[in-house]
Amino acid sequence: MFPIYDVIVVGAGHAGCEAAHAAARMGSKVLLCTMNMNTIAQMSCNPAMGGVAKGQIVREIDALGGMSGIVSDKSMIQFRMLNRSKGPAMWSPRSQNDRMKFAEEWRLALEQTPNVDFWQEMITGLVVKNGELKGVRTSIGLEIQAKSVVLTNGTFLNGLIHIGEKQFGGGRTGEAAAKGITEQLVELGFESGRMKTGTPPRVDGRSLDYTKMEVQYGDENPEKFSYSDSTTTLKEQRTCWITYTNKEVHSTLEEGFDRSPMFNGRIQGLGPRYCPSIEDKINRFAERDRHQIFVEPEGWNTVEMYINGFSTSLPEDVQYKAIRKIAGFENAKMFRPGYAIEYDFFPPTQLKLTLETQLMENLYFAGQINGTTGYEEAACQGLVAGINASLKAQEKDPFLLKRSDAYIGVLIDDLINKGTEEPYRMFTSRAEFRLLLRQDNADLRLTQKGFDIGLASDERLAKMNIKKEETAKLINDLKQKKFSPESVNEGLEKIGSSTIKEKISAEKLLKRPQIGLQILKTFNTEIDAYLSKYPTEVLEQAEIQIKYDSYIEKEQQMVDKLSNMENFKIPLKFDYIAIPALSAEGKQKLNKIRPETMGQASRISGVTPADLSIITVYLGR
Question: What are the alphabetically sorted keywords of the record (predicted)?
Answer without folding.
Answer: Cytoplasm, FAD, Flavoprotein, NAD, tRNA processing
